[in-house]
Amino acid sequence: MLKVSDIHQSFGARKVLDGVSFELGEASLVGLIGPSGGGKSTLLKIMAEVLKADSGAVSLGLASSEGLSLMFQEGALFDSLSVFDNVAFPLVGGRVPTYTLDKDTQESVRSKVSEILSRVGLSKAAEKVPAQLSGGMRRRVALARALVPRPKLLLLDDPTAGLDPVASSVIMNLIVELYQEYRPTTVIVSHDLRRLIPIVDRILALFDGRILFDGPVSELESFRHSLLHKFVASRYDFV
Ligand SMILES: Nc1ncnc2c1ncn2[C@@H]1O[C@H](COP(=O)(O)OP(=O)(O)OP(=O)(O)O)[C@@H](O)[C@H]1O
Ligand SMILES: [Mg+2]
């Protein structure tokens, strides 16, 4: 469904991606790991076509980029919009606030937004603004907004960054539940390998601008590349 071929990307003199290639199939849950500053967010932005790579190709087996959602590392909510309007945003092409829409459109938007808000446990927070929410709740709003168009491909950039352990577990569990329910091919970037590794089917490890490892979690432990092994072993206990 998505093919990434030989992506190169530099910022000034710094080479960030140096020939990245891989493919994603239907309905898989994939973890993208690697050191900080290693280019994971850059790669997601290139996959989502928010950023155009210096060279290489991304081919989406989708009718248009509408089948894809990217949840940015910072969550990127609109501070002045209600939770409801934040989530409705992708459905209405940014024509917010939604009370300005005609009645029929309002109705259809309302049912979709209400459904997803209830799925992420935020029905009661619909009329609040992001500043009134905890970090974990804001992350759930961002997840709801990414999911509301029912994407075929969901890219989640560090969805638990900055959250406490309990809120992190809530978000990771929710991602698994939503994946099982809606089945979007999902790529999760995370440094939280203790929570990431047990839930994903496959790991992509980005080191030195390249995919150093691409395979099932079961092969990660026996993959004896010293850099990757150190990186993983310091963050995850194989059992
Ligand atoms: N728009 C930009 N302009 C200049 N440099 C950039 C830009 N975006 C990213 N970089 C640089 O590219 C490198 C990779 O950044 P990126 O954010 O992709 O890393 P990352 O793997 O997501 O890191 P982290 O795990 O900390 O989120 C960094 O050195 C960063 O400073
Ligand atoms: Mg990043």
Describe the structure.
With 239 residues, the protein is α/β, with parallel strands linked by helices. The chain has a single domain (2-233), classed as P-loop containing nucleotide triphosphate hydrolases (Rossmann fold, 3-Layer(aba) Sandwich). It is built from 7 helices and 9 strands. The strands form 2 sheets. The chain has a 6-stranded mixed β-sheet, with helices on both faces. Strands 2-1-4 form a 3-stranded antiparallel β-sheet, with helices on one face. A hairpin with a 2-residue loop joins strand 1 and strand 2 (14-24). The longest helix is centred in the C-terminal third of the chain and has 18 residues, at 165-182. The two termini are 33 Å apart. Bound molecules: adenosine-5'-triphosphate and magnesium ion. Adenosine-5'-triphosphate binds at residues 11, 14, 16, 34, 36-42, 73, 158.
CATH topology grouping: Rossmann fold
Strand order of the largest sheet: 5-6-7-3-8-9
Biggest β-sheet: count, sense, barrel? 6 strands, mixed
CATH class: Alpha Beta
Bound molecules: adenosine-5'-triphosphate, magnesium ion
Query: Spans with pLDDT under 50 lasting ≥5 residues?
Result: none
> In percent, how much strand structure appears in the residues?
15-25%
Q: What's the structural domain tally?
A: 1
Query: What is the tally of helical segments?
Result: 7
Oligomer classification: single chain
Shape annotation: globular
Average pLDDT rating? 92
* The named CATH superfamily: P-loop containing nucleotide triphosphate hydrolases
Straight-line N-to-C gap: 33 Å
Label the CATH architecture: 3-Layer(aba) Sandwich
Give me the strand/helix succession: EEEHEEHHHEHEHEEH
Helix/strand structural class: alpha/beta
- The percentage helix is 25-40%
